[in-house]
Specification:
single chain, alpha+beta, 51% helix, 4 strands, Aspartate Aminotransferase, domain 1, 2 domains, 148 residues
């Protein structure tokens, strides 16, 4: 998809490399008119902008390092990542920490449905966004430990 490094998540643009037989099956199950002309133009434009792609990767890599360091400082484990998100083990039922984060205006994704009831999926943001999340996580973890 173009939602990660190219920053086109809302455009819902992707591509597949496949055999003609698989492409035929994919075309039969996809929604009609699933990508609009604006999304196609945006995808074509970002493919030409290597500087933007490199900068996006740099920001993401720095964000992953920032989050990993923050998790280490908070004493919580995480699954190392090379994507644009990271899974953190909050050491308790993640649903409680998720709710505490929501109350602090921070949205993450619980992943209990994937057999990881103690983990949250956190998207990498800009440095200031990551810092705000880490501060909110610290507060949320303390609130859950204190029973609030």
């Amino acid at each position: 998809t173009f939602s990660k490094a190219w920053g086109l998540a809302a455009m819902r643009v992707g591509y597949a490399l496949s055999s003609p037989a698989i492409a035929d099956v994919l075309n039969r199950v996809r929604q009609p008119f699933n990508v609009n002309s604006i999304a196609l133009a945006a995808a074509a434009a970002v493919l030409e902008d290597e500087e933007y792609l490199n900068r996006s990767r740099e920001v993401n890599d720095a964000g992953l390092r920032q989050l990993a360091a923050g998790f280490e400082q908070l004493g919580v484990s995480f699954i190392p990542s090379v994507g644009n998100f990271i899974a953190v083990d909050v050491g308790a039922q993640a649903a409680e920490v998720y709710q505490a984060l929501l109350a602090r205006g921070v949205i993450v994704r619980p992943v209990a449905g994937y057999g990881m009831p103690n983990h949250l999926r956190v998207s990498v943001g800009l440095a200031e966004e990551n810092a705000r999340f880490l501060e909110a996580l610290s507060d949320a973890l303390q609130a859950v430990r204190d029973g609030h």
